[in-house]
Amino acid sequence: MIMNRTELMEIIRNGESSGVEFKRDDVHPQSLAKEIASLANLEGGCILLGVEKDGTVTGLTRPDIEEWIMNICSNNIQPPITFVRIGSTSREASREQEQRLYQASGVLRYDIKPAPGSSLKDMDMRFIR
Q: How many angstroms separate the CA atoms of 11 and 13, rounded?
């Protein structure tokens, strides 16, 4: 997302929302990973690093910010924990929410999932032939 200073200040002025999260420069990697996963599951959003919860811009001090974020994405965001965005908060997805996310992504298809407790004996071989 490319924006100019006026657009950025407007986002900050409006505060956090379901698609906007403010994080301090000293955010713990796992906390940032949680927000990234939540917004990704929401189909996008904006995390502003170096902005306090009250909208004060404190800036960034990390010289390698892009590499640091890429490492967090690579090392800290993976199943089994899936987060969803609810309002301006990130919460662990319920089992049903997680199933819907996987199904919506095409990763999990219930029409080809095996039926628990079934075996080849349960199949009608005449129908299959």
A: 5
| 3-state SS assignment for residue 9 | helix
The answer to whether the CB of 14 falls within 8 A of the CB of 20 is yes
The Cα 9–Cα 5 span in angstroms is 6
pLDDT tens digit string along 19-58? 999 999 899 999 999 998 888 877 778 999 999 999 999 9
The residues, any chain, with a CB within 8 Å of residue 114's CB and separated by 6 or more, are: none
CA-wise closest residue to 45 among 60, 54, 59, 34: 34
Which of 52, 54, 44, 46 is CA-nearest to residue 27?
52
Given a contact cutoff of 8 angstroms between Cβ atoms, the answer to whether 47 and 77 are in contact is no
Q: Got the DSSP string for 62-115?
A: -TTHHHHHHHHHHHH--TT--EEEETTEEEEPPHHHHHHHHHHHTS--GGGSPP
Cα 33 to chain centroid, rounded:
8
Number of CB atoms found within 10 A of residue 32's CB: 20
Write down the pTM of the prediction: 0.63
